[in-house]
Amino acid sequence: MNADKLILDGTRVAKSINESLVKRINQLSVRGILPCLATILVGDDPSSETYVRMKSSACKRLGIDSRRIHLNKATTTEELIAVIQQLNEDPQVHGILLQHPVPHHIDERAAFEAIQIEKDVDGVTMLGFAQNAFGMASFPSCTPAAILAILDYYQIPIEGKHAVIVGRSPILGKPVSLMLLNRNATVTICHSKTNNLPLIIGLADIVVAAVGKPAFIQGAWIKEGAVVLDAGYNAGNIGDVDFDACHKKASAITPVPAGIGPVTIATLLKHTVLAAEKSKITT
């Protein structure tokens, strides 16, 4: 597909992924297996509640069981880990997602590490990160995997390209950097301490914005013909990229919303189905 001034439609990519799962879910049903994703929400953050609801709705549309667990914001780290352990031990649960972020008093990393690797469908554990670094992860982090899925769907070359990642979080910036590196891109990781950020972004063939600041990446920073992937989502449906300004110079760009978000959810469902396929216990 021609990437000339192309809007990278995440809804279209997500639909393709979801359609590919229907036959696999039916085959699991013949085996007596109903794929099940358990989502854990701690507290009452409105954005997190929306994300969990969207994931649950997506599961139901495909015939995947969605088990929603909503814990009080006063839940302790120990109590949260106990809930995760119960889900680890439940053979009818194939994937576990702990909605990020959790309240500040909770040790989020400890909670992530409590998730059994076979059920880490969101790719948040350290073992999952290490497997991803070696290109061996069954369940790479969902948003990075979604970014690669969009590039592949639109047949945008990765090998030999210079990718600049703005953001270094352990579930987005770092893993997507490794995934692009494993696909033979030359990767530069930028962050809040990076000097001359506009200059570095101006060298990129592929820009991944994952900084968590609305309209942060400016059109003047990117070079003509760059591919821009906006992984940010801020209040008011605004991404991390100044869309209008960047669109004028980019050869291809993801919108917000309807860009990376829908593909992230579709990837989560794909991982849940794969986890169910790997299971040997029938319901």
Describe the protein's topology:
Elements: E1 6-7, H1 10-30, E2 36-42, H2 46-62, E3 65-71, H3 77-89, E4 95-98, H4 108-113, H5 126-133, H6 142-153, E5 162-166, H7 173-182, E6 186-190, H8 197-201, E7 206-209, E8 227-230, H9 243-247, E9 252-253, H10 260-278
Parallel strand pairs: 1-9, 2-3, 2-4, 5-6, 5-7, 7-8, 8-9
Helix pairs in contact: 1-10, 6-7, 6-10
Pfam families: THF_DHG_CYH (PF00763), THF_DHG_CYH_C (PF02882)
Subunit structure: Homodimer.
Catalytic activity: (6R)-5,10-methylene-5,6,7,8-tetrahydrofolate + NADP(+) = (6R)-5,10-methenyltetrahydrofolate + NADPH; (6R)-5,10-methenyltetrahydrofolate + H2O = (6R)-10-formyltetrahydrofolate + H(+)
Description:
- There is one protein chain.
- The chain has helices spanning 10-30, 46-62, 77-89, 108-113, 126-133, 142-153, 173-182, 197-201, 243-247, 260-278, and strands spanning 6-7, 36-42, 65-71, 95-98, 162-166, 186-190, 206-209, 227-230, 252-253.
- It is globular.
- By secondary structure, the protein is α/β, with parallel strands linked by helices.
- The longest helix has 21 residues, at 10-30.
- The protein folds into two domains: 33-116, 3-Layer(aba) Sandwich (Rossmann fold); 141-261, Rossmann fold.
- Belongs to the tetrahydrofolate dehydrogenase/cyclohydrolase family.
- Homodimer.
- It catalyses: (6R)-5,10-methylene-5,6,7,8-tetrahydrofolate + NADP(+) = (6R)-5,10-methenyltetrahydrofolate + NADPH; (6R)-5,10-methenyltetrahydrofolate + H2O = (6R)-10-formyltetrahydrofolate + H(+).
